[in-house]
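Hi R.,

Quick one: here's the Phosphoribosyltransferase domain-containing protein sequence you asked about.
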Amino acid sequence: MSRSLERVSGRNKKIVSRIYKGLRKSLKEFLPTACALCLKNISANKFPRNICDKCLGKVSLRDVNSNLFFMEDPAEARFNFKSINVSEQFNSYYQNYTNNFYVFICTYYDEYLKNMIRNLKFHEGLEFVPVLADLIYLVLERARRCSSREFKEVLNFDYIVPLPLHKKRFYERGYNQVELIAKELAKLTGKEVINCLVRIKNTKRQSEMKSKMERLKNVENAFTFNDTAVIIGKKILLIDDVVSSGKTLWEAASVLAQNGAEVFILAITGNQKENYI
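And here's the predicted structure, written out as C-alpha cells:
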C-alpha cells in the first residue's frame, strides 16, 4: 500500500490516504491493537494507549521538578522561562507574579515526540492522539502526587481550552490536532473542552521565523475571545503541542486572562531548561 501511495501525487495522494485511513478505522475492531510507533501488537487495554512499553521507555518524559516554568512576556523579558520546583518554590512565585503565566511542559522534544507530532499534524496520524493525551495525563498525575498544596490547586482546573488554528489552516488540515488531544484528555480528567478562543490572524509557522523579533510580530494580536463563553473566575488549562519562544501561547493566555480567567498553560513538549531564552 505504501508503494502505491508514492505513485500518487498532490491532491489525489491525500484522498487515497484518507480512504486508506478510513478503511483502517472501520476495521479497527477486527484488528489487533498496534503500537503507533513500531507497529508491534499490544493489549487493547494498555495505558498509555497505542504505545508499547519499549517505545514508551524511549520517550523523554520530564522529571517532576523540570516540568514547570514561569513565563514572562516574551516581548519584555530577557529570560522568557524560569524553571520552578513544584514542591518547593511554587507558592512564592504564585504569590508574587500574577500578570504572567506558568507553563507545564510534559516531555523533552526528542526524535520520538517530533515524529509523533509531525505525523499527527501533517500526515493524518490520528493514532497518535490517544498516545499524547495519555502521556499528558500520566505526567500531570505524577506532578499532582509530588507537588505542593498550592500547585495541586492549579491542577484542579475547570475547563480545557485548546490553542485554535486559523480557519484557513483548519480547512487545509481537516482538523485541529490540539483540539483532538484536548477531547481525549477531557475524557480522562472529567473536564469540559471549550473553544472560547478564535484565531483571527493567519500566522506563519513560528518555526519558519528566523529571529525572536519576527516570532513576536508574527503572532501579535493573533487571537480574540468568543464572547459566548463565560470564563470569569474559572481556572483554564490552555494546551498546545509544542512550545518554543512561548509568544503564541502568551498571546492566547493573555486574551483569556483579560476576560476574567485564571490561566495555566500546558505544552506536550519543548526543550526549555533553566533560564531559557
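The chain has two domains: 9-55, 59-270.

Cheers,
M.
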